[in-house]
Write a structure and sequence with these properties.
It is a single chain. It contains 6 helices and 49 strands. The protein is mainly β. The longest helix is centred in the first third of the chain and has 11 residues, at about 5-15. Strands 8-15-10-11-12-13 form a 6-stranded antiparallel beta sheet. A 6-stranded antiparallel beta sheet has the order 16-24-18-19-20-21, with no helix packed on it. The chain starts with a helix and ends with a strand. It folds into 6 domains: about 20-125, Immunoglobulin-like (Sandwich), CATH 2.60.40; about 130-230, no CATH class; about 245-345, no CATH class; about 355-445; about 455-545, no CATH class; about 555-645, no CATH class.
Length: about 650
């Protein structure tokens, strides 16, 4: 363990900083290469240990492949099969300090014959999150020690030396009487286990007990156990203050209605597995990386099946800022009965300290791929792109899947079908889109959600004043709110304008409209909406983008400018601004957009406009300034301006 991690672990045990979600869990998407491939997902597997679970997405007859550090990367198991662990001649995986390397070609983890695409889920060993244990059976009841250090949420056991089912215990099973069990590689309901399985004993924070069933404890048999924690009410110990939960293993009761139950996890999930515990059903896995749009159909994989990824068409399970909402009557999710789930929180939990990890600007013709698919160094949650030669300004959100809106129109969200903006290889943005007539001159700005910096919320209006939960962690200083289901104006809140004012993506000045924000300033957990149908129309769907200031990273602010005099705008940056959005509020003006890729220089700059599809214009608007930017005196009218800048 590195010195920094020893310090972090010690601080966490003393009530200080804990691990972040991104240090212990990753969903990483990649394309097969049929040759050595290194996956840098930021997880220390060689030093800390853990599990990497891989599944081919785009073709059937490819089994799941589970590799763990306790057995070594030369051995793998298949969650949808009873078979013993496979031991190829060459080790398929090598575990690294920041991910893993795939050393061999195989359709299950690194093929190209079918233009193979893959997902990998990596779970790092960490107290109160995950542990992996190997043991040898003795043919009679025995207890097995583990290091989870908290409530066991999900216990999964597989015999490795020969065939055997994947028996598991789940915290969401009924606690009435003896502990229950279920089988991961089958679709059957949970059952009350006899003494041969768990020896009629519930697992504890330090050990679990097995009976004499050959699948969990045959004499001389070898086994691996995966243990997933259940955090409850702030006992997880994660995050900057060591008080955050990141994994929940619970249950809900289905009602058989498209208005199904809403599960409050206390956090927004990025990965969920759901299983009908009362009846037959798949072990369905959703994650935000492969496509989990709010109000749309998520992409499903099944732990019990080798089938390709399914685009659900039976209804949907929606992500919410505090959990997930069931909106289907499909039997795998919502008939009358008990359902169990495992949910992992979306990260990060820490406020960003490096703008390059949460914001990227790219332009065709500056060294990026001509196919408009770019490595940006992080997984984007929102993107705005246009062409410098004149084009609509498209705004995309991971929560909206394949749908797009435009900042320069009032249009509803339009579905672009098979476009894979975010549902592509990790740490990339894929804008190889078919509505541009050429690939040239594309400019693209990407944001990652992070505490105190940026958040995205999708919600449905009720027709009356309402509050909406968010995960920004601070009061948003700027909000862009837009109806998705039909045409309507963008409604924009900016703290410097005051709570009774709003502005739109147009050249118009701010306007007095107390009905929009209900006369209530946003807080660190909610924002308020009044009775204006453009933000709360009953049954309509909406998207809200929330922005805030992070020292040295981003700045939401306002400034007064006098025509003819340069105005230095200090944002607290050390090397100037890479991105600037600026708009006059007491008179007509454009929403000017500048960035360093196209040029923020002393002299002429290249400007675009969020409210217009005009081609890029050249003028001496902005000059570099070490702590922010300079508004050139003669280029802006005298007046009050709002701005948003990123270092």
């Amino acid at each position: 363990m590195s010195v920094s991690k020893i310090v972090a672990a010690a601080a966490s045990s003393a009530g200080g900083a804990g691990l972040d979600v991104d240090e212990v869990f990753s969903t990483f998407l990649y394309d097969g290469t049929s040759s050595s491939l290194t996956i840098n997902n930021g997880i220390d597997l060689s030093g800390e240990g853990g599990l990497t679970w891989i599944k081919a997405r785009n073709f059937s007859s490819s089994n799941h492949a589970l590799f763990d550090t306790a057995r070594g990367g030369g051995k793998y198991l298949q969650s949808n099969e009873e078979s013993a662990q496979e031991t190829p001649v060459s080790a398929p995986l090598t575990f690294n300090s920041n991910g893993f390397t795939i050393n061999t070609q195989a359709d299950s983890w690194n093929g190209t014959y079918y233009s193979n695409t893959y997902t990998s889920w990596t779970f790092r060993k960490a107290k109160k999150f995950f542990d992996v244990v190997t043991y040898t059976g003795n043919g009679s009841a025995q207890t097995i020690s583990h290091n989870l250090g908290t409530t066991v949420g999900w216990l999964l056991i597989k015999r490795t030396d020969t065939t055997g089912s994947w028996f598991n215990y789940h915290h969401g099973f009924s606690k009435s009487g003896n502990p229950q069990g279920a089988i991961l590689n089958e679709t059957g309901a949970a059952f009350t286990a006899n003494a041969s399985l768990w020896n009629l004993t519930y697992p504890t924070s330090t050990h679990f007990t097995v009976g004499d069933n050959n699948s969990v404890n045959a004499s001389g048999g070898t086994y691996v156990a995966y243990l997933f924690a259940h955090n409850d009410s702030g006992d997880g110990g994660f995050g900057p203050d060591g008080d955050q939960d990141i994994i929940k293993c619970g249950s809900y009761t289905g009602n058989g209605s498209t208005t199904g139950p809403e599960i409050n996890l206390g956090f927004e999930p990025q990965w969920v597995m759901i299983k009908d515990a009362s009846s037959s059903g798949n072990w369905t896995i959703y994650d935000a990386m492969r496509g989990w749009p709010v109000g749309g159909d998520p992409s499903a994989l099944y732990a019990n099946s080798n089938s390709a990824e399914q685009q659900a068409n039976w209804g949907h399970v929606d992500i919410t800022p505090t959990g997930f909402k069931i909106r289907t009557t499909d039997g795998d999710f919502n008939q009358v009965g008990t359902y169990i789930y495992i949910a992992i929180r979306r990260g990060p939990l820490a406020v960003p300290d490096d703008a390059t990890k949460v914001f990227s600007v790219n332009e065709t013709g500056t060294g990026d791929s001509p196919t408009n698919s770019w490595p940006i160094g992080f997984n984007a949650d929102m993107n705005i792109h246009t062409r410098t030669t004149g084009e609509d300004n498209y705004i995309l959100a991971r929560l909206l899947g394949t749908k797009a809106q435009k900042t320069n129109t009032t249009d509803s969200a339009g579905d672009q079908g098979s476009v894979k903006w975010f549902n592509d290889s990790s740490n990339r943005i894929n804008l190889n889109t078919n509505w541009f007539t050429t690939n040239s001159g594309l400019i693209s700005w990407s944001w990652k959600r992070a505490p105190s910096y940026f958040d995205v919320v999708a919600y449905t209006g009720t027709g009356s004043a309402m509050t909406i939960n968010h995960n920004l962690g601070v009061a948003p200083e700027m909000m862009w709110v837009k109806k998705r289901s039909s045409a309507d104006d963008w409604r924009i809140y900016h703290a410097s304008n005051g709570i009774d004012y709003a502005i739109t993506f147009s050249t118009a000045a701010k306007s007095y409209d107390p009905s929009l924000w209900n006369g209530t300033s946003p807080t660190s957990t909610v924002f308020s909406l009044g009775n204006d149908s453009s933000v709360i129309a009953s049954g309509s769907t909406f998207i809200a983008y929330l922005f805030a200031t992070v020292a040295g990273v981003s700045k939401v602010g306002s400034v007064s400018h006098t025509n003819g005099t340069d105005t230095n705008v200090s944002c607290g940056f050390s090397s100037g601004a890479r991105f600037i959005l600026i708009k006059r509020t007491d008179g007509a003006s454009s929403w000017y957009v500048f960035d360093t890729v196209r040029g923020i220089v002393a002299g002429d700059d290249k400007g675009l406009y969020l409210q217009s599809n005009l081609a890029e214009q050249t003028g001496d608007w902005i000059d570099p300034f070490s702590s922010g930017f300079t508004m050139v005196g003669a280029s802006f009218d005298t007046g009050s301006y709002i701005f948003y800048a990123i270092a």
